[in-house]
Design brief:
single chain, alpha/beta, Aspartate Aminotransferase, domain 1, 2 domains, 7-stranded mixed sheet, 3-stranded antiparallel sheet, 14 strands, binds pyridoxal-5'-phosphate
Length: about 350
């Protein structure tokens, strides 16, 4: 597919080429069905099988324990900013939020509409350039849950491992690093992720929730905002995002064929290491995240001047390296290199960076 360029978009983001080709091949008629997945009833045997296989493969890939429900919802990660507190932040309790970037801040804003929120840690005063240390966290004993953002898409930082929160349920927005490495689901009460970075297309949101927490969902909640309802109905209370689930299923199959999360993680480590090595090589480029907090998914860096940054964006785009302009909250460049991003694309960027520095350094 010579017309495909290297896509560094932060999201929606690159999908595995094998997934796109399979979806394209079967788009007009699913094999043996004679209709498109876009056209069939969500109550059909065919779709039920697609949903079941997607969930089964996802459970295998992530090692999801049996006492966790897997839900396929809509509304993006942003609706989870509301659904998490609406379901889990019961009257008289406090939710702890660790604030490590713009998405954490948005999650806090919605939780504050529901109940009492305690900011258990924040690196805002350092423009979110690092992840807080465990000894900086001020956790509320007996909190309803602790919410954190595993990877900070805008600021290029990522938690190396989960914060320790004792018996309090840990809730994680994993939108931009879900399944980029092995994840010990049993450490979490609830995990959510908009699909459009590592899991599939936009329009479907993954939620993995420990069964006992479903008891907190009040019967007075609006039906579509109630985790327990979605769990009881196997994500089919209403029409689910059928095409997104189908495509997520193809991505799960692809991820298993790569060798699972250990193999995917090793590839992600190699890609990130190559890029950070180039950033650190001479001082021309400057990584914006503290070294111990660096993301393997979104690699943020600056150049010596904004003028050179503008030139870098223009010339890299012309060279077939698309989407490198950084988010305005950090400036500079951001290379998003999710699971599906090929190692050849990282090599191409490193080569481009060397040549750019040679000409402009
Ligand atoms: C992209 C992103 C979101 C927003 O996701 P939507 O599906 O657009 O609501 C939330 N959190 C993180 C960490 C993200 O990267």
């Amino acid at each position: 597919m010579s017309e495909r360029i290297f896509n560094f978009s932060a999201g929606p983001a690159i999908l595995p080429e094998a997934v796109l080709l399979e979806a394209q091949r079967d788009l007009v008629a699913l094999p043996g069905v004679g209709m498109s997945v876009l056209e069939i009833s969500h109550r059909s045997k065919t779709f039920e099988a697609i949903l079941a296989k997607t969930e089964a493969d996802l459970r295998t890939l992530g090692g999801v324990p049996a006492n966790y429900k897997v839900l396929f919802l809509q509304g993006g990660a942003s609706l989870q900013f509301s659904m998490v507190p609406l379901n889990l932040l019961t009257a008289g309790t406090t939710a702890d939020y660790i604030v490590t970037g713009g998405w954490s801040q948005k999650a806090v804003k919605e939780a504050q509409r529901v109940g009492t929120v305690h900011i258990a840690g924040s690196t805002e005063s350092e423009n979110f350039a690092r992840i807080p240390r465990q000894d900086e966290l001020q956790l509320t004993p007996g909190a309803a849950y602790v919410h954190f953002t595993t990877n900070n898409t805008l600021f290029g930082t990522e938690w190396a491992s989960e914060p320790s929160v004792g018996d309090v349920p840990l809730v994680a927005d994993t939108s931009s690093d879900m399944f980029s490495r092995p994840i010990d689901v049993a450490k979490y009460g609830l995990i959510y992720a908009g699909a459009q970075k590592n899991l599939g297309p936009s329009g479907v949101t993954l939620v993995i929730v420990r069964e006992d927490l479903l008891a907190r969902s009040s019967k007075t909640l609006h039906t579509m905002l109630n985790y327990a309802v979605h769990a009881e109905n196997g994500s089919m209370y209403n029409t689910p995002p059928c095409f997104g689930i189908y495509l997520m299923g193809l991505v799960m199959k692809w991820a298993l064929a790569q060798g699972g999360l250990a193999a995917i993680s090793a590839a992600n480590d190699r890609k990130a290491a190559a890029l950070y090595a180039e950033i650190d090589r001479t001082g021309f480029y400057r990584g914006t995240a503290a070294k111990d907090s660096r993301s393997r998914m979104n690699i943020t860096f600056r150049l010596p001047s904004e003028e050179l940054e503008g030139k870098f964006v223009k010339e890299s785009t012309a060279a077939g390296l698309d989407g490198l302009k950084g988010h305005r909250s950090v400036g500079g460049m951001r290379a998003s290199i999710y699971n599906a991003f090929p190692e050849a694309g990282v090599t191409a960027l490193v080569d481009f960076m060397r040549e750019f520095e040679r000409k402009n350094g």
